[in-house]
Design a protein that fits this description.
TIM Barrel; about 425 residues; binds N-(iminomethyl)-L-glutamic acid; Urease, subunit C, domain 1; 8-stranded mixed β-sheet; binds fe (iii) ion
Length: about 425
């Protein structure tokens, strides 16, 4: 066969194969499909073959000379999929970082007009072009740290024209940057200050104006709601998500993050593709997620920046048969682009094993954004989004933390980042 390039001699090649149709559940989550002395062949932007180095070398057609990328002593795996990130916003919130250290809670800061409101002000002032420039910096950092597909949520405009501007900036980013960016409309992020005394008016604006426009103009695939005490209650969240469904936007929920509100149950009820956060999910909520096979997207960096003692109950979720994924929750409160850090936090604070964390950050993460047929594993015909990590085995990825272990990122078959 003719290949454009081949990666040879990986100490461990993690295929994550066999879970493109349904996510990895229970004990399957720890099965990475490891090939020792592994190799991948690439043709244009696709994976052409996967196997041992001997097998792939045999497939190389005599007389052809594919580019050889040597991975001796390294770990090769699919690019990370980050299925929960807030993108294309302006401004930063390091002042709140200090306030939190001094004892203020996230909700206190939000209720006093800080938090999301501060980012909304800055984002409204910024042009689409500025948002794209800022987003590019974010995506560049994500790429260097091994993310090749990311979800991007709006939610810092909270007015029709500014929500559309943010979504259009996200669309621009997808077009100009090597990373694939999957857009989510999150007009229901908080009730903007102008509507503080009449939240129903804002809910109506989201349902009657924003959702139809976003859907008709193809600006998003998903619709997310922050279901939380003092933000959107379950009933409002349900109405918004049901409206989204009428317009073929797939529901997602910021669920049971600060309080046990029933966000997980709502996600199951409306057939959401994912329920995210879940720090305070009830046993009933876990059962509902398992039954409806909603992906639980866990965000340990958020628990970390909120200085929570209790993280999401990953072990309980896995044992109950809920598909579990991991994401950064990159936002101005949770400023990390690094899925490598997420793996370390997932292992040490949620007691996921390195293998489970890697599956949750690749194939299961792809399921959380409807991309499991194109990314998340190394299998023939999938997009050639591949990481070469400078570690002798996969456990080193979360174990050796706080530095960037990525040696090369191959995106759509081309080297998009190289450490040397
Ligand atoms: O997922 N919880 C709500 N939304 C974001 C935070 C957004 C912000 O603070 O700007 C989250 O953590
Ligand atoms: Fe979030």
């Amino acid at each position: 066969m003719h290949f454009d390039s081949v990666i040879l001699h990986a100490a461990e090649l993690l295929t994550l194969a066999g879970a493109s149709h349904t996510p990895k559940l229970g004990t399957e989550l720890a099965e990475l499909g490891i090939i020792k002395d592994g190799a991948v062949a690439i043709q244009e932007n696709r994976i052409a073959a996967v196997g041992t180095t001997r097998e792939i070398e045999k497939l190389v057609k005599a007389g052809t000379r594919p580019k050889v990328i040597d991975a001796t002593g390294k770990t090769v795996l699919p690019g990370f999929v980050d299925p929960h990130a807030h993108l294309a916003f302006a401004g930063t919130r390091e002042k709140e970082f200090v306030q939190k250290i001094q004892g203020a809670s996230y909700m206190e800061i939000l209720e006093a007009g800080g938090g999301i409101n501060v980012t909304v002000k800055a984002t409204r002032k910024a042009s689409r072009k500025t948002l794209v420039r800022l987003g590019q910096h974010t995506l560049n950092r994500m790429l260097r740290y091994g993310t090749t597909t990311v979800e991007g949520k709006s939610g810092y405009g909270l007015e029709p024209k500014h929500e559309y501007k943010q979504l259009l900036a996200i669309r621009d980013l997808n077009l100009i940057h090597p990373i694939d960016v999957v857009p989510t409309f999150m007009g229901a992020h908080v009730v903007p200050q102008k509507y503080k005394d009449r939240p129903e008016h804002y809910v109506k604006l989201v349902m009657e104006k924003m959702i139809p426009t976003v859907a008709k103009k193809g600006m998003a695939e998903f619709c997310d709601v922050f279901a939380e005490e003092g933000v959107f209650d379950i009933n409002q969240s349900r109405r918004i998500l049901n409206r989204a469904k009428e317009y073929d936007l797939i529901p997602k929920v910021h669920a049971d993050e600060m309080t046990t509100l029933g966000g997980a149950e709502l996600a199951a009820e409306v057939g959401a593709i994912s329920a995210d956060h879940l720090l305070k999910v009830s046993n009933q909520g876990i059962q509902a997620l398992a039954k409806a096979q909603v992906v639980a997207v866990l965000l340990p960096a958020t628990a970390f920046v909120l200085m929570e003692k209790e993280y999401a109950p990953a072990r309980k979720l896995i044992d109950a048969g809920v598909p579990v994924a991991l994401a950064t929750d990159y936002n101005p409160n949770c400023m990390t682009e690094s899925m490598q850090l997420i793996l370390t936090l997932a292992c040490l604070n949620m007691r996921m094993t390195p293998a489970e964390a890697i599956a949750a950050a690749t194939i299961n993460a792809a399921h959380a954004i409807n991309r499991s047929h194109v990314v998340g594993s190394l299998e023939p015909n999938k997009q050639a989004d591949i990481l070469i990590i400078d570690t002798p085995n996969h456990a080193h990825i979360p174990y050796h933390f706080g530095i960037n272990l990525v040696e090369k990122v191959i995106k759509n078959g081309k080297i998009a980042f190289s450490a040397q």
